[in-house]
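User: Can you predict the 3D structure for this chain?
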Amino acid sequence: CNNKNQIFSKSETLNVCIPYCTNQQKALVVLTNCKKRNESLESSLYYLSLQPECHRLDLADFMIKPLQRVC
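Assistant: Here is the predicted structure, written as structure tokens:
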């Protein structure tokens, strides 16, 4: 029974991860374009990246973390 739960859990994870991984590059392009068009967004994201809990990582760095965990 425990193996079935593990298989189901992995299957559910893949159902989320596959679309995320597939669209991740597009999302980074959208983020880059939004930051180019919106100076306020760019400065806000920069300010947030300087917060201690972010360890100088920006939003794009956090967006790739799930992809790194899958691979």
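The radius of gyration is 16 Å. Helices lie at 2-37, 39-49, 59-70.
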